[in-house]
TrEMBL record:
GO cellular component, one term: plasma membrane
Name by which UniProt lists this protein: MFS transporter
Topology versus the membrane: Multi-pass membrane protein
Keyword line: Cell membrane, Membrane, Transmembrane, Transmembrane helix
Transmembrane regions: 12-36, 42-65, 167-187, 217-238, 250-269, 281-299, 305-324, 345-366, 372-394
Keyword Transmembrane helix assigned: yes
Main subcellular location: membrane
Record has Repressor as a keyword: no
Domain called Major facilitator superfamily (MFS) profile: residue spans: 1-398
Length: 439
């Protein structure tokens, strides 16, 4: 897996991801303390509103940013957005009103909504070999899981020495370091052969996404991962602190179970994906996560839930969650031409976060009105529905050549190469606006 770090460009991009994630982790801790400083007991409402603003920015801004991405140099765009995020981070220590937090969070997350899909779309251009790209996806998943485990510990250590305001300066430094690493290498910046209007560029990624059968299956799997993850991320603190009556440190242990399961999946997936098709692996992950959630709901009715048992279920869900998400970049890379990848990655960013925008508040509401067993049961059923939809929407061997014809093209068109009906793997573009049906 680590051999991909021999590629200098990818090594710098991966380091940029690591320092930016560390900065983001520090900001998460600092923001919760800032909210408590400004709102006291109402801090939860402030954070909930900030999270909603974050998801709204992701859903709305990502496709718009992708529309402009094809017109600008990709490296310049990434560096500019990193510096914008750094500027916002260093403004946060000076806020005195809650509305200022909301405004800055919207700007920060809007910049992230432009940065993340463009950054992700660059990796398959840097690592064109699919096995190398698979290893890179696993390394990226490991980085995110390690951040969730280590950043709180780092923040706690720093808070022994400095005030929480200083953590925002650490966040700003992380984004500046990311910008310096990005600017230190030359990045591919493919341009479309044909220029498109603003509406076409804004909607292009979503149209490609929804017209590609395997990506429609991926959308259903995004639904599953959001249903599973929302229970863990939203309700673990309530489960541990209220239901189990344990200390704050136990919350971290339960979440560590989820993170360790996710990391284990990321470590073994490159070898598995070399032998088993993505569809089977990702559907198996969905079934495992859904089964673990349903088993946790059932077990909570039969025996008293303990921290060890909860951590075990969370680890299984984390394994399934990572098994769904890690290979998704391979599907996106295969499903778009290089010039269209930023738009397609932005569509994935938008549509997956739309699922989270549904399940974040739903998970909290289910827990509030019905308790843990009810919430886990409903979210397990929602996961089952998503897995079933993915199985139905994503045909087997969807990357194989499909026989089709182009009656609208002249016989001497370069795409036909003198042939009438022909066969090749389908990527949605101007010549193939919809997936053809095999005769």
């Amino acid at each position: 897996m680590l051999q991909v770090l021999k590629n200098r460009v990818y090594r710098h991009l991966y380091a940029a991801q690591l320092v930016a994630l560390t900065g983001t982790g520090l900001a998460t801790v600092a923001l919760s303390l800032l909210a408590y400083d400004l709102a006291g007991d109402a801090a939860g409402m402030v954070l909930g509103t900030a999270l909603t603003i974050k998801m709204t920015a992701y859903v709305v801004v990502a496709p718009i940013a992708a529309a402009f991405a094809e017109r600008v140099n990709r490296r310049r765009m990434l560096v500019t957005l990193d510096l914008l995020r750094a500027g916002v981070a260093v403004c946060l220590p000076f806020v005195t009103e809650i509305w200022q937090v909301y405004v800055l969070i919207f700007v920060l997350q809007s910049a992230s909504a432009g940065f993340t899909p463009a950054f992700q779309a660059t990796i398959p251009d840097v690592l064109p070999d699919e096995q190398d790209y698979t290893n890179a996806l696993s390394l990226s998943r490991l980085a995110m899981d390690l951040e969730s485990l280590l950043s709180p510990a780092l923040a706690a250590a720093l808070l022994l020495l400095v005030s929480y305001d200083s953590l925002f300066w650490g966040t700003g430094l992380g984004f500046v370091a990311s910008a310096l690493l990005v600017v230190s290498v030359a990045l591919p910046s493919p341009k479309p052969a044909k220029r498109h209007g603003i509406y076409d560029r804004t909607t292009r990624g979503i149209r490609i996404y929804l017209n590609t059968p395997r990506l429609r299956g991926l959308l259903a799997l995004n639904w599953v991962s959001a249903a599973l993850g929302s229970m863990v991320f939203v309700n673990t603190v309530v489960l541990v602190r209220s239901d189990l009556g344990l200390a704050e440190s136990a919350v971290a242990l339960a979440l560590a179970g989820f993170g360790l399961g996710s990391m284990l999946a990321a470590l073994i997936l490159p070898r598995v994906l070399h032998q088993v098709e993505d569809r089977s692996v990702m559907l198996a992950g969905a079934v495992l996560g859904m089964g673990a959630m349903g088993a946790a709901a059932l077990m909570s009715q039969l025996v008293p839930m303990t921290l060890a048992l909860l951590s075990l279920f969370w680890a299984m869900i984390g394994f399934g969650y990572s098994t769904i998400l890690t290979p998704s970049g391979r599907l996106l890379a295969r499903s778009a031409h290089a010039a269209d990848r930023p738009a397609v990655y932005a569509a994935q960013f938008t549509l997956s976060h739309a699922c989270w925008l549904i399940f974040y508040p739903l998970a909290g509401w289910l827990m509030t009105v019905g308790g843990a067993t009810f919430a886990m049961g409903v979210l397990a059923i929602a996961s089952l529905a998503g897995a079933t939809a993915a199985w139905a929407l994503w045909p087997r061997h969807s990357g194989q050549p499909v026989a089709h014809s182009h009656p609208d093209l002249p016989p001497d068109h370069p795409h036909l190469a003198g042939a009438g009906p022909h066969s090749h793997a389908i990527i949605i573009d101007e010549l193939h606006p919809r997936y053809p049906q095999e005769p």
